[in-house]
Every structure is written in C-alpha cells, then in structure tokens.
Amino acid sequence: MKIKLTNWLLQEEAKKFSELESHHNEPTLYGVTDGKAIGTYLEHKFQAYLHEKYDYREGNSAKGIDFPELMVDMKVTSIRQPQSSCPFKSARQKIFGLGYSLLIFVYEKSDDQSNNTGKLNIKHTIYVDTSRTADFQTTFGIINILENHANKDDLLAFFEERRLPVDEIEANSIAEELLLHKPKKGYLTISNAQRLSKKDCVTFKV
Known about the structure:
The chain is of the alpha/beta class. The chain has helices spanning 7-21, 35-51, 92-96, 136-147, 152-161, 168-180; strands at residues 3-4, 54-55, 72-78, 83-87, 101-112, 117-128, 189-190, 201-205. It folds into 2 domains: 3-89 and 100-132, PvuII Endonuclease, Chain A (3-Layer(aba) Sandwich), CATH 3.40.210.20; 136-185. It has 6 helices and 8 strands. It has a 3-stranded mixed β-sheet, with helices on one face. The chain is elongated. The model is unreliable at 194-200 (pLDDT under 50).
C-alpha cells in the first residue's frame, strides 16, 4: 500500500534523492550540455523515485505544475546560471507570488572521461513556499514605502519606476489592495514579461 504524498514528505524525499543522485554516474548524460535535457532527465527520475513509494497525481505541461495536488512546481537549474522560467499570468505575480510553491534542484555537472558518464552534483535543494515566490526587489521596495506611511500615489510612482507591466486600472487596484494588506518579502528575482499571452514566461533567479 503506497503512502499519500504530502508537502512535508516531498521536501524530505527531495533531500534524500539529491544525495543519491549526487553520487550516481549516468552514461546518458555524458557530454550533455543542454540544460533543458538535463532538467527533463532529473525531473523524470525524481518522479519515478517518488512513484515507488507514494500515491499522488503527477502533473504535466497541460496542467501547468508538476505536483498539482500539492500546488508545487519542480525546477532544475545549473549553479552556473541559477534561473528558470514559468508561465506568466499577470504582473501581480511580482508582488503577491506565483500562486504555488517551488521545489528547485540546483546542480553542478561534470563528466568522467574514463568511463564515459556524467554526474549531477546537486549543490542545493531549495523549497520556496508560495507565500515567498514574489520578486524580492519589488516587495522589498513596497514594504519600505508602506512602513513610511505611503499613500496610493507613492505606490503608483513606484510601479512606474519599476516598470511593472500593468495598466492604469490594475495598478490602482493593486495599490489599494496593498494599502490594506502589506505583502510578504519575496525570495525570487522575477523579470518583466513583455506581453501578456499564453506563450509568455516569467524568468526568475534563485
């Protein structure tokens, strides 16, 4: 009988998996430099690892995130350039977060020419709770403004300064909401998407 996967178990298993993978020599990774291919390999392997013990519904690109029941998305990124991307829904993500948590594997890849294998040394396994998935600089600035007894015009000026991709109506709506509820400081660096369409992505750094 498989155990139901919980958020806490996901985090614990991610740490165990990272330790195991960091000592694994993988022939199919030898000479591979494509970050997307490496990410796909690690994501599929972690899902297979979890399915051996746990009962859960696996997400896919159509559903948007990897663990829809837990509202957690998995990201794999190189330590040389620790960043990734995800679907961009609205400018609110920079202030209020992505709407789901992130499980991030940060790896350093090396090849062993003596046995033609590649190895992923998982340097960091990071869990970012949904409440902390907003943009650091944006939320830091907003919190400072609010703590100095700002008004709506101060917030609107800040939005313009940060070039937040939002129209006037939405900017006013966000400002009024912030005056009632101060946001939590985000832990990500999120770039602005240029257009709002289904193909847009928001890029973040960890």
